[in-house]
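Quick illustration, no need to memorize.
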Amino acid sequence: MKMKAVLFDCDGLMFDTERVAQDMWREIGRSYGVEIPDDLFVAITGVKDTRALTPYFETVPHLQDILDASRKKRFDLEFWASFYPDGLNKKGLVALNQYLNENHIPCCVCSSSKKEYVETLLHTVSVPLHFDSIVGGDMVEHGKPDPDIFLLGASILGVEAENCLVLEDSKMGILAAKRAGMHSCFIQDTIKPDDEMKENIEFEKEDLSQVIDLLEELQ
């Protein structure tokens, strides 16, 4: 089983942005006198629309107002660009990207967020990272857990789905990789795997640096 391409999620996988975003949600929620339930973050992490939040509109007061305010702050490019160099990097990000480039293994970022946002985060890294393509959620009709974004990434790279390794930290991303017919490696960030995730996770590592060893094993 040789991996010919690696597809990266972005938030929570490459960059420590999910924790910052959850703090935003909680802060805005408290301004409305609302405590955001932890399971809401499981539902929304890794998705590009609000379908997954439908049940919460009945149970969380002012959710639409909180959602609107959170989105505005969450995707403020100036805010993310202001982080000091490498302040958001997840462990092993630079090392893994360099390994892939040196070994001529194509790699692509497949994020539910917009391409412009991903590029902003990449510019916070002190060492230039090379990805063969960046696919944003604004480039596909259906977001995760639908497989569209990963299938588009593989198509751009010219690699068959069965030869792609998807790196993910979210439930929706793991399900999308499975539906795309790709291999997946889960690296935990803020989301702990539930039973459905465990059934669909193929590999699991503690950080991105350990993916290098996984790729070596699979060659």
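Residues 10 and 118 are 7 Å apart (CA to CA).
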